[in-house]
Amino acid sequence: MTTISPQGGSELRIVILGNDEENKVVKSVLNCEKLTGVEVGLCTLHQGEQTGRKISVVEAPGWDRLRPDRIKEEIVRSVSLCPPGPHALLLVIPVKTTSGDPSVGEINASEMHMRLLSERVWKHTIVVFACDDGVDHQTIQKHIHSAEKILEKCGRRSHVLQKSTCEPPSQIHDLLKKIYSLVKQNHGGFFIPQAYYELIQQKTQEASETELRKRRGSMDSPPSYNKDTGDSEKKESVETPKPSEDKPKITMDFKTISLILFFAFGAVLGAVAGSESGVSGACSGLVFGVVLAVLLASFIVYIYTHIYSSAYPKQPTQSSS
Q: How far apart are the C-alpha atoms of 286 and 281, rounded to whole Å?
């Protein structure tokens, strides 16, 4: 037979639930008459080996032996004792020689108790009709007909267990083959207890919301495709001359030219004004014009030094690297 464990191993995990006859089914699955198991709460964990594969079987207590307030607790416990979850759940419905017609209340109770594990449980369920010795075919068919609603829920997967003692190997293999077929049909999947299932859903939803927020953020702030923008701006800030850097040079050239023009203008003006008195008057006028030009130039230099330079401070020159 092929490997059935979803992790690629060889372990088969089974939980047996019902109102009675669970112990008979455990013996059949493990192919042994004397069982040794570990009790956890009111559940019992059995382990064995079949066809070279390890089998873990959890036997849940019969519903008729539990107080109503303990039923859900023990049912939930049973599916948690074979982590990460059972591959198959066997729902046992007893078929007794003294029972006659099947009890409708018992069938309804089976459906109600299985529903405590959520509707997902039916995907992994096989109904086992555990018969006493001597039960006729007609009685078995009546029980199967009464369980029609449950059979519809679990895909009509069922097995009739007719002996009270361990079955021959061929009969045991029939039940195991149906379990293997169920696991194959579920692609190696197993039933996840509701608490773990809700946690997985919560984590999946949180991961989806985080991914959605990231996508929305990338749409609101699209990436810049101009990789050289920063370098270009930096280069431009270094190489582009600022208007204020050229002002001191232009102003200095203007100062020199102004002084020369003032000297020449003062000398000419003084000479012209003193020429009416002859040569001596022209010389005196020339000297007077030069002195006046010097005073006027000094006044201009004072204005430049104390007013213009403070209004336009000289910018430091950047050295090229």
A: 8
Q: Tokens standing for 178? A: 């149906």
> Of the candidates 83, 9, 78, which has an alpha carbon nearest to the alpha carbon of residue 40?
78
CATH of the domain at 78: 3.40.50.300
Within this chain, do residues 251 and 140 fall inside the same structural domain, yes or no?
A: no
Q: How far apart are CA 53 and CA 49, in angstroms?
A: 5
Token pair 């995907």 in the structure block, residue: 123
Which pTM was predicted?
Answer: 0.60
Strand partners, 316: none
For residue 56, which phi and psi values (nearest 5 degrees)? -110, 125
In a domain, 222, yes or no: no
Structure tokens at 93: 């419905």
Cβ–Cβ < 8 Å for 59, 46: yes
Distance CA 310, CA 272 (A): 39
What is the tally of structural domains in the chain? Answer: 2
Q: Which of 128, 73, 59 is nearest to 95 (CA)?
A: 128
What's the domain range around 261? Answer: 244-311
Q: Which residue has the tokens 């007893």?
A: 94
Is 167 found in the same domain as 29? yes
pLDDT, block means (10 residues), the chain with 321 residues: 46 90 84 85 90 88 84 92 93 81 81 91 94 87 92 95 60 82 92 69 68 71 55 48 48 57 61 60 65 70 64 52 42
